[in-house]
Amino acid sequence: MFSWGITFLIIAIIAALLGFTGVAGAAAGAAKLVFVVGIVLFIISLFTGRRGP
């Protein structure tokens, strides 16, 4: 999940350097969304994960 976020972040940085502001904004938004979803899923897995006997 976090690899997708890093991928979108790298795309956003490269697009920003090349001047594609629309693409950079969209990729940055997607990166933020993927990171937030990943963190939420991680927290959920902490509470509902495997527990001892």
Automatic annotation (TrEMBL):
Keywords: Cell membrane, Membrane, Transmembrane, Transmembrane helix. InterPro entries: DUF1328. The keyword Transmembrane applies. The keyword Cell inner membrane does not apply. It comes from the Bacteria. The chain crosses the membrane at residues 7-27, 33-49. NCBIfam families: PRK13682.1-4 (NF010229). Belongs to the UPF0391 family. This is UPF0391 membrane protein AB9R89_00190. The lineage of its organism: Bacteria, Pseudomonadati, Pseudomonadota, Gammaproteobacteria, Aeromonadales.
